[in-house]
Amino acid sequence: MTVHRYLEVLAIHPSYQRQGIGHTLLEARFSQIGDLPVQLESTPAGRGLYQKYGFEMVDELKVLLEPKEAGKTIDFPIMVRNKRG
């Protein structure tokens, strides 16, 4: 069994996305984690950013929306980076 560090929620307000803030925050966190394996749950929109850092999707977390959108789900990728690439 591989033990992974868990990367907590990282969210950038839409008004500030695509300005390098996510990259800066990830780099700071990775400098603390080093080459240890890491797991996280991403938003669908964040999947591409994490893939650039070597994360691979290993599963999906299906979240059922509230009654006003009954029956709809959002699929959150569960991603792992085994080694910094």
Q: State the end-to-end distance.
A: 21 Å
The gyration radius over C-alpha positions equals 14 Å
CATH class category label:
Alpha Beta
> Mind summarizing the main beta sheet?
4 strands, mixed
Question: What is the averaged pLDDT score?
Answer: 84
CATH architecture: 3-Layer(aba) Sandwich
Number of domain modules: 1
- Number of DSSP helices? 2
Q: Strand tally, please?
A: 4
Can you write the helix and strand succession as a string?
A: EHEHEE
Query: How large is the share of residues in beta strands?
Result: 25-35%
**Strands ordered across the widest β-sheet:** 1-2-4-3
CATH superfamily: Gcn5-related N-acetyltransferase (GNAT)
The name of the CATH topology is: Aminopeptidase
Fraction of residues in H or I helices: 10-25%
Oligomer: single chain
Principal-axis shape equals globular
Secondary structure category: alpha+beta
Low-pLDDT runs: none
Structure, explained:
- This protein has two helices and four strands; from the N terminus they run βαβαββ.
- With 85 residues, the protein is α+β, with helices and mostly antiparallel strands.
- It has one domain: Gcn5-related N-acetyltransferase (GNAT) (Aminopeptidase, 3-Layer(aba) Sandwich), CATH 3.40.630.
- Strands 1-2-4-3 form a four-stranded mixed β-sheet.
- The two termini are 21 Å apart.
Topology (elements, then pairings):
Layout: E1 5-6, H1 21-33, E2 38-41, H2 47-52, E3 56-64, E4 73-81
List keywords for this structure.
Aminopeptidase, alpha+beta, single chain, 85 residues, 4 strands
